[in-house]
Amino acid sequence: MEKRHQEYLEYYQARLKKYEHNPLYPHSQQSQEALYQSIASSKNLEEWGQKVENQQLDLKSAIALVKDKETARKKFYQDLNEQIRLHAPVKILEIVDSVKTEAELINTVNKIEGEVNIEITLDLFTHAIIDDLMMLEEIEVHQTAEVPEEWKKEINHDYPQELINQGRKDWVEMVEPNARQWDPQWKFNLDLIWEERHRRLIPFQDEVLKKRVDQFKTYRGL
Fold this sequence. Notes:
With 222 residues, this protein is an all-alpha fold.
């Protein structure tokens, strides 16, 4: 065996060991085993190159790695109940076996990731209520503060109303235009607040959150 052939053999043997006995990479182990056996059973590098080309071993290796990574990512998002982020691995796994070239694989995966990233961006606008929690509390504190009669209008009404007016202005001039760059039909969906991926980020009991949601609707003019 030529020296270069031996070096390639050792290289693919090392690649195989990287994935052996790793439960996250069953498809990659199989594809690397095929690559290793193809070079180990070849008389020379030219014969091995023909095997790789004829059997599309490079493409199969790339597909295997994508399948392993997306399968792990799918399980991770399922365990977290991250329904939007789950879309990418699900869609990729649906098409990965049908691609014909490495370029098609890369382009298809990137296209899906780009589309789902827009979904994720829009979903994250739900966090607006989280960002507003301190402001909602400040408004409530001023509205309910016990103050002398001569200060009631200013403290209990005028100042909190100024905050509400500014909140509605910012929503119309900043939040909505920003979201509608991604989806011209976007509207804030209050129901999403209660979905697990968002709800777990708000450390309040349900009755407290319900009150904050009502305050948020007033503050933002929803």
